[in-house]
Amino acid sequence: MQKAALGLILVILFLGIVSLLSLPLNETLENSLIDLQFKLRGERRLADEIVLVFIGAEDVQALGGWPITRDYYGYMTHVLSRLGAKVIGFDILFDTPNRNYPEFDNILADFLQSAGNVCLPMTFAELDRDQTISDKAAQRPDKIMRGHDPSFPFAQLRERAAAVGWMADARRTPPD
């Protein structure tokens, strides 16, 4: 009985130490445990308060091809605002003015300002692990990142948006 208890304590201690190491196995295990938690929890009804607007390939073609001119984003902002959206967020970075259609930038900027609730993204050219984290955050150093060379929406849009926030870009996250 004592050998079994000692063995169990050693296994728990070993797993605890291994879980603190940054290993690919740990990430796979963590993802599997998260999946299991969601399966055990069961399905939940989706919230009616959140709406995602997805613009797919067919939509892009119907709007004249890529890139979609910015006036369409402005019109979409206007419609969502009129329908009572509390917050509108974009996951496309408008980091440079459109030289071919500056009037469409003006339309988008005007609708951003009139809606008053639009969040635009910013991103970083490079992310790396932050080595200067506090003791409290040191429990999960693999999740603390530092960004370099930020890209923001160009000034006309940035000044008229309600907020600007970081948009994660999976292509730019450093490998484990």
Description:
This protein has 176 residues and is α/β, with parallel strands linked by helices. The protein folds into 2 domains: 2-41, no CATH class; 57-172, no CATH class. Helices cover 43% and strands 14% of the residues. Strands 1, 2, 3 and 4 form a 4-stranded mixed β-sheet that branches. Strand 1, helix 5 and strand 2 (118-129) form a beta-alpha-beta unit.
Layout: helices, strands, pairs:
Elements lengths: L1 H19 L3 H18 L15 H6 L7 H13 L5 E2 L12 H14 L2 E12 L15 E7 L3 H6 L2 E4 L10
Helix pairs in contact: 4-5
Uncertain runs: 172-176
Structural class: alpha/beta
The share of residues in helices is 40-55%
Span between termini: 41 Å
- Total strand segments: 4
What is the N-to-C order of secondary-structure elements (H for helix, E for strand)?
HHHHEHEEHE
The portion of residues forming beta strands comes to: 5-15%
Please tell me how large the radius of gyration is.
23 Å
Count helical runs: 6
What's a concise summary of this model?
The chain has helices at residues 2-20, 24-41, 57-62, 70-82, 102-115, 155-160, and strands at residues 88-89, 118-129, 145-151, 163-166. It is elongated.
